[in-house]
Amino acid sequence: MQKLKEIIIISSFVPGHNRSPVSVNKKMVQLCSYVFDKVTFITSNYPPEEIKELHSDKIKLKNINLNFNSNNILKTILNYIIMQIQIPKIVKKSLSDNSYIMFWLSGPMIIPFLYCKLKRLPIIGFLYGNSRYKSDHKNLFNYLKAALMKFIALNSDYICVESRGVARHWNIDFDKKQMNEIHLFVDTTRFKEMKPYIERKMIIGMCCRLVPSKKVLESICAFHLLKDDFPEMRLQIAGNGPLFNECQELIKVLGESDRIDLLGWIENQNLPIYFNEWRLLLNPTNYEGLPNSLIESMCCGTPSLSSIVGGIEDVIIDEKTGWKLEDSSPEGIAQSLKSILKTDNCIEISKAAREFVNKKYSYDSSLKNLRKFMDLLI
Q1: CB neighbours (10 Å) of residue 76?
Q2: Range of the domain at 203
Q3: Does 228 share its domain with 341?
Q4: pLDDT at residue 107, rounded to an integer
Q5: What percent of the chain is helix, strand and coil (3-state, nearest 5)?
Q6: Which residues form the Glycosyl transferase family domain (predicted)?
């Protein structure tokens, strides 16, 4: 295949309290480096060592030096505007005769988008989780963010989504002629079954940000409701966030400190250890793109009970590769968990989940998928 000359990937800043965007950005940059001669990655607050680990001289990280670790909302918004004003200058310096611009829509990068439109540069808009649904109570700020990101995607020359379910989550009809499904990959050399499912103890796991939209407090209450039915069961929660202290207090009040472990933030390279101990990944959520933790756990043979939002609907086939969670109230979660834990087909579903992800989300499969899309650009 003929290589394209350059892609410039523009992404929002990495929040100081949330490293989850680091992994997905890194994977997209890595995939693009095998298709393009040059990859310029423009962002802010991104850890440079992550790009150095890719050992590629084709990749140039352009980190805009601004502080996004402040709890001051007004300061964050001001820095975000300053960041957007600086991006066109970097784009102008980085352009070659055959450059494509990819907007990785983790934020409403409207100023650089308008600049690229005015310059008639070829634009790829990449949509994933819809921030409109990020909070339990939809607010104007998240609504406007989502509206701007959707506007950018729909007015790009090419629209990409992680999966068709993500498009539906944005209330966009998936059209093969106008949209492209570009999914990332799981590192199957690290995320694999190391401990047979049948040998695992009765441990339920969660891997998420501790925020209201991830229903972590409801999950703790649901786990408590099952104490009499499954006294030997444990719950491990990997992640950090603003609800961490509230989770600690709730666990203490419920008298569950000996059965529920708050693990804090777990680095990605250590997650396979935990996934291989868990019988089930519990994943209630208001919104998602295609969550890394879900497909990584499935690759380890750990099936999931998940809310069916965003790209999850393309991965969880109910009672085949996992289980649908219809009701994310404490009672609803407890009832679903009880039903799953009493079933006798968990081993078969574990195997099916692992095989599904290994086939569709391996590195080779994702690279082939990206190359197929990039063929359209030549």
Answers
A1: 17
A2: 197-360
A3: yes
A4: 87
A5: 45, 20, 40
A6: 198-351
Q: What angle, 0 to 180 degrees and rounded to 10, lies between the N-to-C axes of helices 110-118 and 140-154?
A: 20
Task: Round to whole Å and give the CA distance between 278 and 201.
Answer: 7
Q: Does position 241 have pLDDT exceeding 70, yes or no?
A: yes
pLDDT at 168: 86
- Specify the number of domains making up the chain: 2
Question: Which has more pLDDT, 97 or 345?
Answer: 345
| Residues 253 and 318 grouped into a single domain | yes
This prediction's pTM: 0.87
Please name the residues in contact with 283: beta carbons below 8 A apart, sequence gap of 6 or more.
Answer: 206, 208, 291, 293, 294, 304, 305, 306, 307, 312, 325
Q: What are phi and psi of 193, to 5 degrees?
A: -75, 115
Let me know whether 268 and 324 are in one domain.
Answer: yes
Name the CA dihedral angle for 373, 152, 290, 20, rounded to a multiple of 10 degrees.
110
Residue 190 maps to a domain:
no
Q: Are residues 356 and 366 in the same domain?
A: no
Q: What is the pLDDT of residues 304-336, one digit of tens each?
A: 999 999 889 999 999 999 999 999 999 999 999
Q: Is the pLDDT of residue 251 over 90?
A: yes
3, 54, 124, 239 from 155: Cα distances, Å:
26, 32, 9, 36
Please determine, for residue 17, whether its predicted confidence score (pLDDT) is greater than 60: no
**Interval 276-290 mean pLDDT:** 93
Q: From CA 180, how far away is CA 158, in angstroms rounded? A: 8
How far apart are the C-alpha atoms of 254 and 266, rounded to whole Å? 25
